[in-house]
Design goal:
- By secondary structure, the chain is an alpha+beta fold.
- It has a domain of 98 residues: PAS domain (Beta-Lactamase).
- Helices cover 14% and strands 29% of the residues.
């Protein structure tokens, strides 16, 4: 069964009743907040409370951003729309986005830096998810991290 996550309210749903895929002509949207995109994942994903999501098209251009992105980056959604996500955020490593797009695999727990709208470098943990629909987009999850902190492994 497909698992979906809303990039805005972080609501997770499982398509057990066929509602999300009822017709090919209806655009998927969040049942809870009405956000215009929900993103299909192969398995469930539990983001941190301060995580912000960015939805991209097949060329990694921003289509929408959810709650938390402005607070983390200082960019309004209108500033991001249509921009290459790696370029507009000046991510410290753009290669993982290429891997996700080319191979259709997730990249989780990447410790990168981004540049805010005020040109301040911020450390973030980035999780990247490929879209499993015919459009072939990308979901970018950005979670702030404390400088010098490392992720626990286990």
């Amino acid at each position: 069964m497909p698992v979906y996550i809303c990039p805005n309210c972080k609501n997770r749903s499982v398509d057990i009743d066929g509602f999300e895929g009822l017709t090919d002509s209806d655009a998927l949207q969040c049942r809870r907040c009405g956000f215009g995109f929900i993103f299909q994942l192969l398995e469930d994903y539990y983001p941190a409370p301060a995580t912000g999501f960015i939805v991209c098209d097949c060329d990694a251009r921003v289509l929408a951003s959810g709650r938390g992105v402005f607070e983390l980056t200082g960019f309004q959604e209108t500033d991001l729309m249509g921009q290459d996500v790696a370029e507009v955020l000046t991510l410290s490593d753009r290669a993982p986005i290429g891997v996700v797009r080319e191979w259709g695999v997730r990249q989780l727990g990447l410790e990168l830096e981004l540049s805010t709208s005020a040109a301040i470098r911020k450390p973030v943990t980035v999780d990247l998810f490929p879209a499993y629909d015919e459009d072939g987009g990308l979901l970018v999850a950005l979670t702030p991290r404390t400088p010098g902190a490392t992720r626990a492994t286990g």
